[in-house]
Amino acid sequence: MAKQIENSVAHNKRAARPATIHVTSFTGALRDYCLEKGAGVWPMQRHEHSTLELFGDRQAVFMVSSIKYHTVMLQVIVLSPDATEALEQLSGSEVYCIGGIVDRSVRRYMSFDYAASQGWGCRRLPILEFSEQLGMAQGVNTRPALNICNAAMALIDYNASGDWTAALSAAIPLRRRRPQVDSKPKQIRATNQAHRGHTTVAEGTAPGSDQEGSPVVLALAAAGLTISDAA
């Protein structure tokens, strides 16, 4: 989890139009380990509160805009591969929650059900809609559960370019876009296993944003969408 947060922040730092990254539930062993690795100077906003506590009531949030602070109202959008609607564009009035659920197998509908229970919006990356442009072979899972840094990378790159094909191509490893071959017997099977620690859950007018002057906000929920919280 710590490495995925670090990779997300590093990718955002290099982006032509960086997003604002909030890491929620930043406590305990994860916080201590991240701080040992230098997280105190990583360009992100750290919060002990969960995503629900921080953004749950669409409260006003202070964020850096150039060299001054301003206040905005944000609606939470949870990223989930099980969402029925695809994310078409980014908005400065929304915060996109990428939840970290560490398990050994994919737990379907967990992030989707959590979003519904809180009255939040839920969207999936438009992988299905761009599967042909991504060169995804027939039988490949077009709703994969990505890890935190891959999902964050897709949003960050789209925010900068406005090009979903390029953003998703960079974020989804080539092997995830090809069928797996089983050596015995030799046959094609769909890729349906995700990485451990998968996702469940800008300043000015960026190509992927629809509002001038509103930075795109990502919330990396380090422990915000756990099994106990979602129950």
> Helix/strand/pairing class, anyone?
alpha/beta
Mean of all residue-level pLDDT scores: 75
Proportion of beta-strand residues? 15-25%
Give helix % range: 25-40%
Distance between the termini: 22 Å
Specify Rg, calculated over alpha carbons.
17 Å
Number of beta strands: 11
Tell me, what's the shape?
Answer: globular
In the predicted model, the low-confidence regions spanning at least 5 consecutive residues are: 60-69, 182-206, 224-231
Number of helices: 7
H/E element order? HEHEHEEEEHEHHEEEEH
Largest sheet: 7 strands, mixed
Task: Lay out the secondary structure.
Elements: H1 2-14, E1 20-24, H2 28-36, E2 45-46, H3 51-55, E3 60-65, E4 68-73, E5 75-79, E6 94-101, H4 110-118, E7 121-123, H5 148-161, H6 164-171, E8 180-183, E9 186-189, E10 198-199, E11 217-221, H7 227-230
